Amino acid sequence: MLIPRLLNRVAERTDRWILPVIYTVTEELRIIAMEADHHIKERILKSSASNSEKANKLEEAARTINRTLTVCLNDRNTPLPKSRKWGVYFIISLLFKVYFKLGTISLATSVVRVLNASSTVGDIPSVEEYPKAHMVTFKYYVGILAFMDEEYEKAEEHLQAALNKCHKKAIRNQELILQYLLPTNLLLHRRYPQRAVWHNFPRLQTIYEDLFTASKRGDMRSYEAALAARERLFVTRRLYLTMLKIRTKIVRPRLFEQVYLASDKSTRVPVSAFRKGLEFVGIDVDDDQVECWAAVMIYQGQMKGYISRERKTIVLSNNEPFPK
Amino acid sequence: MALPPRKAKLPPQGSSNYKGAYSVVEVSKSISTKPNSSSTKGTQASSPNNQTPTLLPSKTSKATHFSAPKSPANGNSAVWPDSLKAYVGRCFASVGPSQRGAMEKNLKKVITSAIESNNLWTIDWDTRELPLEGIKAVDDGEDKLEKLKKDTKKRTDVKSQAATGTGTMRTITPPPSVVYKSPSITFRKSDQQYNTTNEQVSSKATKRSAKWDQRSEEPASIEDSAKRKTISIFADTSYLNSSAEQQRKEKRLRRFDSPSGESTPTPIGTPDYVGTAFVQDTEPEKFVGRSMKLEKKYLRLTSAPDPETVRPVHILRHTLDLLKQKWKSERNYAYICDQFKSMRQDLTVQLIQNEFTVNVYEIHARIALENGDLGEYNQCQTQLRSLYALNIAGHPNEFLAYRILYLLHTRNRSDMNDLLIELTDEQKADDVIAHALKVRGAVTDQDFHSLMRLYLSAPNMGGYIMDSFIDRERHAALEIICKAFRPNVPLRFLTDEIGFESDKACYDFLQKYALNQFIDESTLLLSTKEAYPTAQNNRATAFKKVDIKGQI
Q: CA B208, CA B216: separation in Å to the nearest integer?
């Protein structure tokens, strides 16, 4: 803890050459802090006595690294080519790592806000001018932040940018990016990954393939089962809410489409027919609920047509009632 | 353990010259009332470190004079030891008039801690060093954080320089805190370090180590050593961290002492770890009020709390009963809220965190909800979260459910994500939480049908929180209905789908938002196509912004 803090002080008086040193020290600090926390936790478990010691070394590391960020950001005197500002994105990415580990996402968001404030002033070069590695990590985390805020368009933009610039051989990193990009693409564009993706990323295949296939078919029952089996995983990776969204926005319309196809593409389908279709896959609800779901789908444009309350019928459009 | 009121300990007649020092003890907590403010700011700020060097020797002497006569039992007959009076005299004689305030302050600390550890009579005041810390260096204090960066070696050097520099008969300050934490093992290790770095003080340090060992075998100190039995694997880092953390803790403890303590300067002559030793050594002074009044108007504290106006717990219990009764009979929210706030304040300044505290916060939160006061509710919620985290019994599930609903109101998705991660299976199985989670699902899916049913069946006070966002969701539902249904929908249907208990209430709502004009008075059917633009507008306005009011 001491050396990084001292380094912060020293760095204030230097310029760009110090950056590699800073990178190494802060990264080491993060790792050591995690190790320390790990040991402290173990010790607390063993002793089981109530002592005041807390596993908060990583938090302290975060504070120190945050200070480093300020040191980098506030380089006002040196000309840009030699400026410490070239360290900004590395440090921010490192902070993201720590904050995600700590689960303090709000802090990560506020870092982004600080950064936006200075980059709009034109204080720091755009992220594209930085080393690719810095950019990819940064975009990855900003993408996830947007993803968690359910700003999927923004998430897609950043994650895609990260994937495009990601090193070919950095398979693990690509996998991490895709982990969020795949559901984003599904939700926004109903776009399914090609087989090659499953082949290259077996881990993603085990997570997603069943769910994606089920959603393609409108197979609500399999989707539910697959989702329940992965609930813990999705929750900890903050994917769960999005997978629920996919269920209502992607899977349910497919299910309604199945009913439409089963009634020979008739444009007038009684509400009860949809209800029976739902019942068939184990969803037992009343007609009003079916109407409500249908209304939401019509409202969101996943189904074209209207509901006649009087006749208890859903009147579908002649032309592509379930747009692709 | 509550300390008896300080006044009882006042001597019948003080040595006339130095009454000042005694009066410091008397008003120990209400510093702000002291007229002497010439150098108060500086001294207050540096106080956490000032008193401590003298503190440890006091412990030591406790060990050596263990069999010395105990101080007279807390209470009326207490007088000051003569040696103490002489000591105070020497203290004041050693400083100039400009430093008197600082000295008073230091003395106050020394004596208070002596009283607290019941050492007033066991300390050998004749040979005790004068508490000169900070007296000369008060003005050129150094940033605390900067101090932190100096390693042990540096500290020792600085300190010894300071000791020789001031040229007083000061004994050395104790070795760093980690040593203190684990007397048996780490002590020797860093004692060696101590020896190698500073020969001048080594012999004394060794002597002390012997005393400490002795002390740790004595039954009287079992409690202390138990507290410190943590032995750090990462001796060095944990030492630094704990010192930083302790400093923070200490600062927090003293936030009432010196409101201006934000940029506390540390006097150069004082090594910063002594602060650590202090906190570990003596329990934070417990503050107990003496007010016997049941009711009290809430007033935001701007200075140190006055024990005369703070009610102790047993009085507060009566207050709570009284307030419950009053709320039932009078239902005057403004009064009740004010009273609860003052109760919370009294609990806070006395550092009371137990089931009673939880009870107070829970009741206040519920009453606030009942009156749609989300801001006040949220304050309670924040406190309750940390109280529950201490495993104090209460109704955590009920309030977790409220929090979920509240997050829906503020539409805080990342916090919702965090919350979901922390949910355990048992929590999910709880009826109240399950209800809140279903509400969450319905809101995100825009499933107004389910949402309205959940709204009408909300348990506890959940309905009141849902009130805060239900209108918003009603507008969303109306927009969807107007877009999806053709050509019209009956009012009856709307009443059900946007969650009203009667057609009349539903009609009033539609009227308020200019949608009634699209209802055919005879058939009571709403023409959806015509109503759609209005519904769209209503929704857009309703979703524009949320009043967050002190978001957690």
A: 12
